[in-house]
Amino acid sequence: MTSSPLLQARDLTVGYDRRDVVHGLDLDIEPGALTVIVGPNACGKSTLLRTLARLLAPTAGAALLDGRVIHEMPTKQVAAALGILPQSPSAPEGITVADLVGRGRYPYQGRFRRWTPQDEEAVAHALLATGVSELAERPVDALSGGQRQRVWIAMALCQRTGILLLDEPTTYLDVRHQLDVLDLLVDLNQAQGTTIVAVLHDLNLACRYADRLVAMRDGRIAAEGAPSEIVTERLVTDVFGMPCHVVPDPASGTPLIVPVGRHRVRTPAGPAAAEIAPAGPLAAGPPAVEIE
After folding, report:
1. pLDDT attached to residue 109
2. 172: Cα separation from own chain's centroid
């Protein structure tokens, strides 16, 4: 079982073009857990993930890996402890699937990049785990969006790190493959103890798969904890501006968010109607449950 290092944010502030997106944020990523970060557009969730992965430098505070400032650590040392799947990765033109996945072995190779049987085994396992073995010799740029996403996940798995950070890993995937990817992450988490942090925009999948949920709003943490403990109608309304019902998911028992819009909604008569029917600015219609 993988021994996961501790990943933390301390008084973290991150911004672009002199505008702060994340504000003085403190967060401890629980080792060995699957943590999902959710929130509306532009709330800072991807910015937070990218800073934890050392892809962005904070303007104040720090991201810490086992108590060390991650932006002061050698690149190869960070890469051996932490894998990252960014939101919109790009591959060199013409590179094959197997070659791209093999790049996940970079942290373990010496000065002359000598390939080992352990590298071969890691690539084969990652291809098999993500269901892309039959694509190994195909160019990445010839694949569909969903196939490419699974290949990028395979590369991240190939690093075999104690921590895996994924920014919207189910993007471009149909419902079946979304479940396949999230089931794969749970398998990895349970079998190897890998700490996994993912940004998801589907609230119901986040509630079903997360051990711990971090809900962000305006660059700060609005709530964090087990989905069953923190996800309420009030939280969803406060964070997403979306009236809803929260009921048990019949498949998992986790919170299931049922959005309430202006049309095709059964509204009860009497006082209860005021609790369901949107009013004021929300009358223009709430956003969908799936939020990027």
Report:
1. 67
2. 14
Amino acid at 170: T
Gyration radius of the chain's alpha carbons:
20
| pLDDT(151) > 50 | yes
CA angle, 202 as apex, 251 and 160 as ends, to 5°?
90
> pTM for the complete prediction?
0.84
